[in-house]
């Protein structure tokens, strides 16, 4: 297991490097220079050149990338073009809210989706099952921005049950209840897509498990339906579901960017949007790296979880 | 059978090995091998049927696949009519393909479900013998009659036929290029009991009609005995014993052969309490075969030497009777 | 339509006129159509037949384990004075794994891969015998030893993938025996095993049934296995029993043309070579397109006009003691050929 993990991490390093290189190229290939944003429209070409030199943008892209890499090896992600703050500091400030949002969404999505998936599998091809399948299809299909705006309109503006955005009510401390009420809508938006996908996975995985020979054995032993479902089928059904968690995490990162923007949630997602607008290359590269590491770590965790839930899997 | 003795062998398998690497560790280096086939030698004479029998993991199927070069051997040679096909170039092998054919176990998965039987049979003729479509189709129709299928089958898809009929198609396909040697890998194992005899009889009849030579691979002793002239008994990638069918069944010299025969459930209730040896234990893994004689872990007669030294395949008296055992059973045994 | 099999004091299970239907995409099928047999306490009845003969569906019908699209539409399954065919699910559950246990064909997939061997053995005993976890575990180890599993004390905590197919089938046997059932239904328990392992398992099952007095319904397609295991045999073809008798009579004096043909079509290894096998022509009819009259008639060398129009009943031969029954128009009540 340990050698397996070491091998995975060693393989992961060039992959991460490749991801950062591609990101770097894409960012630099985008038309326009960050300097344009920091100078007045009347700036002379000399002004532009001076600013670019100050930002290190005058060197060839390849050299810029190598410089960025060298800095990275010293644990330094560079300095934001926009406000001269270290990128590590910016990300550290924003990562907490994002982890709170994503973590809560993931936990709630699974807590809701797994029982519903089991329920649908046990009532396969009944009206209840068709209802669940239909609803989950809707949940997968509806885009985050649409669901988010609809939520704000109905629950914040019309009913007034929840705030329209932010993480705390300004000027009113931000107690636990206040934070929870701010969390509800963005979590619902983010969790819906994840839960809808998970319902379908759990359902089909449970249906698959119910068809296995060992379930017939369990029935032939005289076990009741709940023991068969919860002990014999569910543990097997969760094995393929575990592999989906890594994919869910990647999707969640994308979803978080849009959701944070809609709800003005002060997390990495919002920082991303702001940095794109400001062509803040240094911050974008830092966020990309963090996101790539997060996806990589999620997949690694998935593999470990796989070995934990399935006794047949032994990595070597 | 005796006429066969004077001819030179059509197929000579010599010290054939097929290892699959086991990879481990950070850089996936090879730490060992699954010795699927580990030094197998036997001859097949023109016009005879050699049965290869053994339990799962003994390497019989891998041997069969290496004979028609569906798998490249790790080492050793497979001489077909004097040519070593183990090292033959792809182009020359392609020419030789027409002479070496294979019939597979599962007649369903080995036939392309999208292709009509007629096209399936005609296809190799067009590819290898450069026949035109009409000519190939006529030959296909002829072959269907030969294997006892109605002409209607020409325009059927494989799934429209029963298991027994599909296996007849599998045999017909193997015969289309007029091969000299056919390797039959468990050709009746997937079939219903009442159908097995149909296919076995068909194979026997075709052998007489076309002068075919068979390598017949099976775990079923009944079928092996019925169809084979000579038998190769395999265990854990090695040949344990080889002899004529009559010799093997009347005077097995290897303890494993004796145990295999004893284990066979003979359809006669009066034999159920016969004296016999039933060995305990499982077949060891071919990834980690026991040292010395591979059978010693289950052999009721094993001595110290069996645990350290692998016995060579030696002549054991009788016409071409060979046995790989330090202490072969007495001639009168069984 | 079918005769009522005789009931004697020792009759443990009596299946009578059992008919099981399935709905499929291609229409309804009846894989079991009027099956009847009896099993006496302690005896081994072999159900022998080819694929599609209805032997496995008969077993699942007895246990009430039919898939969602199948149900018993006629007949009875009398077990110790109760008709299992009409029993509600909770009561069936008390019988399954307790009074009637089952062993399946595929040892590799019949055990739950994520639960330990001990857990899977213990749960039946905790459920049906009310043992504590510790007692059940101790008895699980004893059972594993009894079925010849080495290092039982360690294996009890292993997961099934650590064991070979033969060892897993021993675990299945231990599980079946755990609540001291009166009847074990074994559905092709050795078909997936190698021949030397099959010999081990068959011997183990014979020894255990002699020791415990458990009756067995042993389902197989292999007449060699029948010869090794059976006290009585019911030969099945296309959803019906076509012949039932004791094992020696079946091999010495088979009466039904199908049984006769089947015995001629299989190779023996103890007799000298020479005789050509006589195959049965054609193939088993599809359940969707069964022939009228006798279901074997299209493949039968003795088929008569009557066979096309009338389905023969399973009738006892001789003096009606019911020791040898045949479903064929060739025989009258006395068992003599009426017209050939």
Concise summary:
Chain A is 77% helix and 0% strand.
- Structural classification of chain C: alpha/beta
Overall structural class of chain B, as computed from helix and strand content, comes to: alpha/beta
| Main β-sheet description of chain C | 8 strands, mixed
Using CB atoms under 8 Å apart, which protein chain pair has the greatest interface? B-C, 44 and 47 residues
User: In percent, how much strand structure appears in the residues of chain C?
Assistant: 15-25%
| End-to-end C-alpha gap of chain B | 24 Å
Order of strands across the widest beta sheet of chain C? 6-7-8-3-9-10-12-11
User: Averaging pLDDT over every residue of chain C, what do you get?
Assistant: 89
Classify the helix fraction of chain C into a percent range: 25-40%
Features:
heterotrimer, A: 316 residues, mainly alpha, 12 helices, 77% helix, B: 334 residues, alpha/beta, eight-stranded mixed β-sheet, four-stranded antiparallel β-sheet, 11 helices, 12 strands, 32% helix
Structure description:
Chain A has 316 residues and is an all-alpha fold. Chain A has helices at 2-29, 34-38, 45-55, 61-73, 87-122, 127-141, 144-158, 176-210, 213-220, 225-263, 268-277, 281-309. In chain B, 32% of the residues lie in helices and 22% in strands. Chain B is globular and about 65 Å long. The two termini of chain B are 24 Å apart. The mean pLDDT of chain B is 88. Chain C is an alpha/beta fold. In chain C, 32% of the residues lie in helices and 23% in strands. In chain C, a hairpin with a 2-residue loop joins β4 and β5. The relative contact order of chain C is 0.14. Chains in contact: A-B, A-C, B-C. Chains B and C meet through α6, α7, α8, α9 and α10 of B and α8, α9, α10 and α11 of C.
């Amino acid at each position: 297991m340990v050698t397996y993990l070491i091998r995975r991490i060693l393989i992961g390093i060039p992959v991460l490097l490749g991801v950062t290189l591609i990101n770097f190229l894409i960012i630099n290939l985008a038309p326009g220079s960050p300097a344009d944003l920091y100078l007045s429209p009347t700036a002379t070409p000399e002004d532009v050149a001076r600013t670019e030199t100050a930002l290190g943008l005058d060197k060839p892209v390849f050299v810029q990338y190598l410089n960025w890499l060298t800095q990275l090896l010293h644990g330094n992600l560079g300095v934001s073009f926009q406000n001269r703050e270290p990128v590590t500091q910016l990300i550290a400030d924003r990562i907490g809210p994002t982890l709170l949002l994503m973590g809560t969404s993931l936990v709630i999505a699974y807590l809701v989706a797994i029982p519903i998936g089991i329920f649908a599998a046990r009532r396969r091809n009944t009206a209840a099952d068709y209802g669940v399948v239909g609803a989950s299809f809707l949940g997968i299909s509806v885009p985050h921005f649409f669901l988010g705006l609809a939520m704000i309109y109905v629950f914040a503006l019309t009913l007034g049950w929840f705030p329209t955005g932010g993480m705390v009510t300004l000027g009113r401390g931000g107690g636990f209840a206040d934070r929870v009420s701010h969390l509800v809508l963005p979590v619902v938006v983010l969790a819906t897509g994840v839960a809808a996908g998970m319902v379908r996975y759990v359902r089909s995985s449970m249906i698959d498990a119910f068809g296995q020979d060992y379930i017939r054995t369990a029935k032939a032993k005289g076990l009741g339906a709940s023991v068969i479902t919860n002990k014999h089928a569910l543990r097997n059904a969760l094995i393929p579901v575990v592999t989906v968690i890594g994919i869910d995490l990647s999707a969640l990162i994308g979803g978080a960017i849009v959701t944070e923007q809609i709800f003005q949630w002060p997390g990495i997602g919002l920082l991303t949007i702001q940095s794109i607008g400001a062509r803040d290359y240094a911050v974008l590269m830092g966020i990309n790296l963090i996101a790539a590491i997060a996806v990589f770590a999620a997949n690694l965790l998935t593999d470990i979880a796989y070995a934990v839930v399935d006794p047949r899997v032994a990595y070597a | 059978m005796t006429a066969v003795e004077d001819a030179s062998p059509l197929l000579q398998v010599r010290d054939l090995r097929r290892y699959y690497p086991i990879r481990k560790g950070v850089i996936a280096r090879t730490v060992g091998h699954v010795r699927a086939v580990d030094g197998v030698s036997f001859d097949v004479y023109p016009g005879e049927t050699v049965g290869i029998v053994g339990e799962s993991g003994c390497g019989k199927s891998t041997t069969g696949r290496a004979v028609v070069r569906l798998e490249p051997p790790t080492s050793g040679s497979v001489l077909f009519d004097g040519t070593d096909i183990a090292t033959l170039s792809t182009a020359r092998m392609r020419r030789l393909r027409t002479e070496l054919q294979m019939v597979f176990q599962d007649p369903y998965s080995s036939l392309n479900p999208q292709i009509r039987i007629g096209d399936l049979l005609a296809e190799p003729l067009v590819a290898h013998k450069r026949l035109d479509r009409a000519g190939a189709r006529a030959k296909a129709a002829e072959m269907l009659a030969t294997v006892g299928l109605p002409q209607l089958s020409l325009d059927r898809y494989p799934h429209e036929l029963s298991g027994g009929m599909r296996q007849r198609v599998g045999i017909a396909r193997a015969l289309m290029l007029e091969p000299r040697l056919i390797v039959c890998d468990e050709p009746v194992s997937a079939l219903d009991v009442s159908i097995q005899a149909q296919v076995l009889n068909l194979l026997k009849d075709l052998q007489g009609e076309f002068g075919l030579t068979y390598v017949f691979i099976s775990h079923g002793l009944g079928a092996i005995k019925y169809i084979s002239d000579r038998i190769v008994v395999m265990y854990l990638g090695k040949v344990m014993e080889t002899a004529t069918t009559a010799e093997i069944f009347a005077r097995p010299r290897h303890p494993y052969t004796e145990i295999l025969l004893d284990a066979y459930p003979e359809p006669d209730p009066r034999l159920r309490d016969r004296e016999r040896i039933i060995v305990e234990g499982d077949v060891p893994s071919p990834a980690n075969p026991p040292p010395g004689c591979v059978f010693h872990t289950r052999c009721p007669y094993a001595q110290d030497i069996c645990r350290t030294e692998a016995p060579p395949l030696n002549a054991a008296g009788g016409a071409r009777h060979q046995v790989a055992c330090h202490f072969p059973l007495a001639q009168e045994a069984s | 339509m079918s005769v009522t099999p005789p009931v004697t004091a020792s009759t443990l299970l009596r299946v009578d006129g059992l008919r099981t239907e399935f709905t499929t995409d291609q229409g309804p099928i009846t894989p079991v159509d009027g099956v009847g047999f009896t099993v006496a306490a302690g005896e081994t009845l072999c159900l022998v037949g080819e694929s599609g003969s209805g032997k496995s569906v008969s077993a699942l019908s007895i246990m009430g384990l039919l898939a969602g699209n199948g149900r018993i539409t006629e007949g009875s399954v009398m077990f110790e004075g109760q008709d299992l065919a009409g029993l509600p699910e909770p009561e069936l559950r008390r019988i399954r794994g307790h009074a009637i246990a089952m062993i399946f064909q595929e040892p590799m997939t019949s055990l739950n891969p994520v639960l330990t061997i001990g857990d899977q053995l213990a749960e039946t005993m905790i459920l049906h015998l009310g043992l504590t976890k510790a007692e059940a575990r101790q008895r699980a180890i004893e059972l594993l030893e009894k079925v010849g599993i080495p290092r039982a004390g360690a294996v009890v905590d292993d997961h099934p993938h650590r064991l070979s197919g033969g060892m897993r089938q021993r675990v299945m046997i231990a599980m079946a025996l755990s609540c001291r059932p009166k009847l074990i239904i074994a559905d092709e328990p050795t078909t997936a095993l190698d021949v030397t392992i099959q010999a081990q398992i068959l011997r183990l099952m014979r020894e255990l049934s002699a020791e415990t007095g458990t009756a067995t319904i042993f389902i197989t397609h292999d007449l060699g296995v029948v010869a090794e295991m059976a006290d009585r045999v019911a030969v099945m073809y296309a959803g019906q029993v076509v012949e039932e008798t004791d094992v020696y009579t079946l091999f010495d004096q088979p009466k039904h043309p199908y049984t006769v043909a089947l015995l001629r079509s299989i190779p023996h290894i103890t007799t000298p070579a020479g005789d050509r096998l006589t195959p049965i022509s054609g193939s088993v009819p599809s359940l969707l397109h069964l022939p009228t009259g006798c279901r074997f008639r299209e493949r039968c060398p003795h088929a008569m006009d009557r066979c096309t129009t009338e389905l023969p009943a399973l009738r006892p031969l001789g003096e009606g003691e019911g020791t040898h029954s045949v479903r064929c128009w060739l025989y009258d009540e006395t068992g003599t050929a009426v017209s050939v």
